[in-house]
Design brief:
Oligomer: single chain
Distance between the termini: 59 Å
Strand content: under 5%
Largest sheet: none
Helix content: 55-70%
Radius of gyration: 16 Å
Length: 88
């Protein structure tokens, strides 16, 4: 029988992993770990590694440019920015 992953499966797996790895058990804290977390994480990792915003939008099936809000100041992006400024 063919079975598909859906957001409920992903949410459950993420929350179980979070509880196991980080010992987070608060329902309020666990509520932050949802399938959207994976999509946002992939978006940021692709961007950090130089993938174009057009490709990110296409591959992760974003219908709008809302994903750009997640391309925020993570350590790797701050380091890239610093390196560019050093070469100016």
């Amino acid at each position: 029988m063919l079975t598909y992953f859906n957001d409920v499966h992903i949410k459950s797996l993420l929350q179980e992993a979070t509880t196991s790895l980080y010992k987070i058990t608060s329902k309020e804290d666990l509520a932050h770990f949802i399938s959207h977390s994976v999509r946002v994480g992939a978006c940021v990792l692709l961007h950090i590694n130089g993938v174009s915003t057009d490709t990110i939008k296409f591959r992760l099936r974003w219908r709008s440019n809302a994903f750009k809000a997640y391309l925020r100041n993570v350590d790797a992006l701050a380091e890239q920015h610093r390196n560019v400024l050093r070469n100016v």
